[in-house]
Specification:
Blueprint (H helix, E strand, L loop, with lengths): L23 H20 L1 H28 L9 H6 L6 H24 L5 E3 L4 E3 L7 H12 L3 H14 L7 E3 H19 L2 H14 L13 E3 L5 E2 L8 E2 H4 L3 H11 L3 H15 L10 E2 L18 H13 L7 H17 E3 L6 E3 L1 E3 L2 E3 L1 E3 L5 H8 L5 H23 L9 E5 L3 E4 L9 H13 L3 H16 L1 E2 L2 E2 L16 H14 L11 E3 L5 E3 L32
Antiparallel strand pairs: 1-2, 3-4, 4-5, 6-7, 8-9, 10-11, 12-13, 13-14, 15-16, 17-18
Helix pairs in contact: 1-2, 4-18, 5-6, 5-7, 5-18, 7-8, 7-10, 8-10, 10-11, 12-13, 14-15, 14-16, 15-16, 16-17, 16-18
């Protein structure tokens, strides 16, 4: 979402040239600068070369670059997307192109390793060069990677993966599946591939797996059980929760199931997941903070920790994103209201270290706070930035400023270790700033995700530099001959033996988009699920009816044509 109001223009995707995003006076100003500079170079070029050879060379290159931008703009329109007109960001900087290519090459290395050693299985173990079925044999890495392949223009790889989905993906598995993980990775991945490509096979498969998940919501309160057998439909919760449902696992299916209802015309998916929000809102606290355990029979929260890290995180993320997904209409106003309450609660958990004043989000246990923050909670800076423009001017600035402070902390999670990769969580100490707690790194994306949002919404290239430094640390420490692995310890650099599917779905996708023009998966047109799968924003109105599933689905987007004109 851009910081100004969303444009309703349906023609934005036609305009791909960088200078299209400059208003006419800006283009004329650039033309004047280019003309004057070019004249100076011609008028006294030899004298300048003698006295300032290096400076002139750089000046001439810059003039040429500006002239090229102006030449490219001749056949484009004058309207600017909100993201660029607000930030003045000129896309396709040569450094961005180079870095984007490096990220794309990393994706190819990860994908080709998966293709060679684990094709069709859930995840690759790069060190032992074999695949494992962590999710019951649903091809998790393959499905999770579909939209990344598409966005990067890796057409051959995308088509091969598409054929596997069409011919080999089978959900009739006698497997106890996580409703949450299956929704965000598989349902989300398939819907995103459908929205990008308009290929019906992805929608059909998404509906198949969603139908198998639906019995999880058949509880007295409508709060779902978190585990389901895909073949038999039997449901239960993990034993270690004492029979309770987990907040994040129960409140992070709304984007996917609402999208599925919109794409198929069948309301049952939306009704199941929106009933969860209705139930939680009945007893929603004033500070908007819910404990991580919810009773599926009563629908009320149980005594348990409050956190923006593991088991809490994406519930709060989806309150904001369902509002964005519905284009911020009155039909989705409740989600924004609940989210703003939760952000008041988040503010009450923010503390700062000494001596460096790193902002962090505490965890809450009863009435006491714990000075601990998960790397998982590093999604919060991006969430705050994304939601900041829904406030009035003063509050918007405060929320965005907090987002930037938290992002600095999260970046220092990386910078504070010998490998420059973050541990799983951190503890904060008076006079001692921070120290790593659980010291493994499993290729998580949350900090990069937040850097992506902050760059998109502020235009500050510092966030690109931070992201690039993190990418280089992954390349140095996690790249092996047959893919990428996590670290058992970020202090020693000892490697593990797993390439998580979200490394391809999220980490590399957000890195690629961090160095792509903001028109590629525009935040005015798309909303990312918590697995970084972009879903098309569709305006919701009160009492609307959906398009019937047998009506032809029009292609949602062509990113400059999938085979032509893409520099990534």
């Amino acid at each position: 979402m851009a910081r100004s109001s969303r444009s309703s223009s349906s023609s934005r995707w036609r305009h791909c040239h960088p200078s299209y995003y400059l208003k006419r006076p800006q283009r004329l100003a650039l033309l004047f600068i280019a003309f004057v500079c070019g004249t100076l170079v011609v008028w006294d070029r030899q004298t300048l070369l003698r006295e300032h050879e290096v400076e002139v060379s750089k000046l001439y290159e810059e003039v040429t670059r500006l002239q090229n931008l102006l030449d490219e703009s001749k056949n484009t329109g004058d309207d600017a997307t909100s993201e660029l007109s607000k930030n003045g960001v000129v896309p396709d900087d040569p450094i961005d192109i180079q870095r984007r290519e490096k990220v794309k090459e990393a994706m190819l290395h990860a994908w080709s390793s998966y293709e060679k050693y684990a094709w069709g299985q859930d995840e690759l173990q790069p060190q032992s060069m074999n695949g494992v079925n962590s999710f019951g044999g649903l091809g998790a890495t393959l499905v999770d990677s579909l939209d990344t392949l598409y966005i990067m223009g890796l057409d051959e790889q995308f088509q091969k993966a598409r054929e596997w989905v069409a011919n080999s993906l089978d959900f009739n598995k006698n497997h106890e599946a996580s409703v949450f993980e299956t929704t965000i990775r598989v349902v989300g991945g398939l819907l995103s591939a459908y929205d990008l490509s308009s290929d019906q096979v992805f929608l059909n498969k998404a509906r198949d797996i969603a139908d198998r998940l639906l019995p999880a919501w058949d509880t007295p309160s409508g709060i779902p059980y978190n585990i389901i057998n895909l073949a038999h439909g039997t449901v239960h919760n993990p034993g270690w929760t004492g029979g309770e449902s987990i907040l994040a696992d129960s409140g992070t299916e709304q984007l996917e199931f609402i999208a599925l209802s919109q794409r198929t015309g069948d309301l049952k998916y939306q009704q199941k997941v929106e009933n969860v929000i209705t139930q939680l809102n009945k007893t929603f606290p004033a500070d908007g903070l819910l404990p991580i355990y919810i009773n599926p029979h009563s629908g009320t929260a149980s005594y348990s920790p409050i956190t923006f890290g593991a088991m809490g995180d994406s519930f709060y993320e989806y309150l904001l994103k369902v509002w964005i997904q519905g284009n911020r209409t009155s039909a989705v106003k409740l989600y924004r209201e609940m989210w703003e309450k939760s952000m008041k609660g988040l503010l009450s958990l923010v503390r700062r270290t000494t001596p460096s004043s790193f902002a962090y989000i505490c965890e809450k246990h009863g009435d006491s706070l714990s000075d601990k923050m998960d790397e998982l909670a590093c999604f919060a800076p991006g969430m705050l930035a994304l939601g900041s423009s829904g406030y009035g001017p003063d509050d918007s600035k405060k929320i965005l400023s907090l987002a930037e402070e938290l992002a600095w902390t999260c970046y220092n999670f990386y910078q504070s270790t010998p490998t420059k990769l973050a541990g799983e969580n951190y503890f904060f100490h008076p006079g001692g700033d921070m120290s790593v707690g659980t010291s493994w790194n499993i290729l998580r994306p949350e900090t990069i995700e937040s850097l992506f949002y902050l760059w998109r919404l502020t235009g500050n290239k510092t966030y690109q530099e931070w992201g690039w430094n993190i990418f280089l640390a992954f390349e140095k420490n996690s790249r092996v001959e047959s893919g990428y692995v996590g670290l058992k310890d970020v202090n020693t650099g000892v490697k593990d033996n797993m390439m998580q599917s979200f490394f391809l779905a999220e980490t590399l996708k957000y890195l690629y988009l961090l160095f792509s023009p903001p028109s590629v998966i525009s935040l005015d047109e798309w909303v990312f699920n918590t697995e970084a799968h972009p879903l098309k924003i569709v305006t919701r109105n009160e009492g609307q009816s959906f398009v019937k599933s047998d009506e032809k689905h029009k292609p949602i987007v062509r990113l400059r044509g999938r085979k032509e004109g893409r520099s990534g």
